[in-house]
Amino acid sequence: MIAPPVENEVVAVVQAAIDKHGKKRDALIPILSEVNKKLGYIPGEAFRAIQQMLHNPAEQVRISEGQLYGLASFYDMLSTKPRGKHVIKFCENAPCHVVGGKAVWDALREKLNLNNGGTTLDSKWTLVTTSCIGLCSVGPVLLIDDDMYGNVTPEQISDILKHYE
Amino acid sequence: MAFYRSHVLVCVDPECLAKGAHDVVDALQDEFVAQGLIDEIQVLETSRIGSCSGGPEMMVYPEGIHYHGMSADDIPFLVEEHFLKGRIAERFREVVKPVVDAELGPLRPKEVRVVLRNCGQIDPNNIEDYLAIDGYQALGKALFEMTPKKVIEEVISSGLRGRGGAGFPAGRKWAITRQVNDTPKYMVCNADEGDPGAFMNRRVLEGDPHSVIEGMIIGAYAVGASYGYIYCRAEYPVAVETLNIAIKQAREFGFLGKNIFGTDFNFDLEVRVGAGAFVCGEETALMASIMGKRGEPLPRPPFPSVKGVWGKPSNNNNVETYSNIPQIITKGAAWYAGMGTERSKGTKTFAVGGNVVKPGLIEVPMGITLREIIFEVAGGIKDGRKFKAVQTGGPMGGCLTEEHLDLPLDYEALTQAGSMMGSGGLVVMDESSCMVDIARFFMDFTQAESCGKCTPCRVGTKRVLELLQKICNGQGEDGDIEVLEYLCHEISSNSLCGLGQGAPNPVLSTLKHFRREYEAHIYEKRCPSKVCRSLIRLNIQEPICTGCTVCARNCPVSAISGERRQAHHIDPATCIRCGICVQVCNFNAISVES
User: Fold this and answer.
1) Contact residues of A toward B, CB < 8 A
2) I want to staple B389 with a disulfide (CB 3.0 to 4.6 A). Which of A51, A141, B399, B455 is the partner?
């Protein structure tokens, strides 16, 4: 089980993201993406910290926590719930579907005993589907964190997952 | 600017210098003077070309011949062979490994590559590769030989239309943005290529990023913009990285920034990365996302050309549109307009997928027929099956049939036939595809991607999907088709943006061309293509079955019974029609019946 990030750590990550992308309204998505990447998800403290650090009516920058939550819930890649140590993203789109994607997806779900969006009890894996990543010529495709796997067959699933033991 | 027929680039990295690169440069200069070629051929010193291990190294353009291992004494021979006699001096030729590209093979019959011409040919992370093939020359021509008005006129007369799919004339959009009396103005590049199965833009961004950047700079000069954004989807991390490198290099070379080419024209550019939302490919949603908001579309007008990013005039074009621009400026509008039909000019890239022999990325001239694309460029239907339908325009497009195969590739022709050009996804289906299932598949996608802002799209797509699921599950009733049609017309006429307006297209077009299939599902409880699980039956043909027990052992619900070496039997009440038995049977004894 991964311990939830302590508040100081969250504030430090938010501070670093703001330093990198700037105190601007249009930096919100890059900032949220950065926090999501560093912590695996965006905890409630992060929304509070971003709001406090960026909200500045004198400079015409008005931001509420609700707006930030609205952003995080709108974009698929931002998560407001804790995720596993490794996130498996499976492409569920037509080109991968027609070349055997369904069997790979079933194998993944069976192996991890998870449904779409689920996280294993030991917090090791999260399984989600992703929008088309444009690697259709080597489908079925899946991503584990930032690693891409193409031409995946159901039989390869165990071996692929072993790399992350 | 002086014109040279050839450029010789000599590597002057420390390693090559140590091996006598400067002597080679001097010898080349002397020999070109002696042969009277010095006005035709330019000698340049450059950074690393190859590994330097076989240095000195040099590269001869435009042929792109890589020589190495020559000394100053070999230069007279080399100059005579290569530059006077026009023969490659094989003795000194470096055998370079060709760039292997899995997606983009060699030119196929009937293909014409304009947008994809550099992909796989140049190193996208090295601006000098792009410069060597006349990169940024169009920008120079625009800045020094053309007024902004002339640039716009050139783009208008080239006939280039929006390659994002809607087909608005690019030059006219520029003219509108130019006319708006408000500053600053922005250039926006839509690189949010979200259609499943479409990856043409990713290939251009990863393979030839400078063509897009140069197109945007020329556009900025034409419309009077001072800043630009490339909005790229987060699913394309390599494209984002390549773009950032390209922008940095363009800035270092003075193509971006203040006083470009020493003129008073200033323009700079940054990449904005999305966070996973299909609807952000819609221009108003995209601009909302650039400004750090939820990517929800806004009603138009006002159009972005008048009121876009930060409420200012913003010219928005797609990746492919911009990457056409440099060649239109260099080669002229007449060259571009020479390709295509009366109203659709130039070329179009497609990602061909589905049941064809040679799927992949292609670029074809407008006016080519769908039949030529499917049967000649893509090699025809796989496994000798029969063609059934082709889906153009992505999830918001429609399905076209045999009767449309001789239509020329043209924005209006495709729209009239009930589909659209779209950004370039092309899914070919053979007779084994169920059109009701296909409609359900696409509706599942649009329903999930609806941003939820307007009711017809949010609620309507959900209801349509439920109806389609019901029909596929064998629970369709009399009247369902009429409700589907009513709903589809309501959604398309009342939705705010292209996503909702186009969402019913797959349903409407399949209803129009394959109504019989819907009727078979509803009234006869039968899936003619044997795809919809609830409507098929698996049957073991007793004379063929050898009783090997493979099917019984693999059946996940133990629906198959029978003694060893005796014909087996499937219990239809237990069978979930997963089809595993059909796949594992070594004797093709199991038939699928509708």
Assistant:
1) 24-30, 32-33, 70-71, 74-78, 93-95, 97-98, 130-138, 146
2) B399
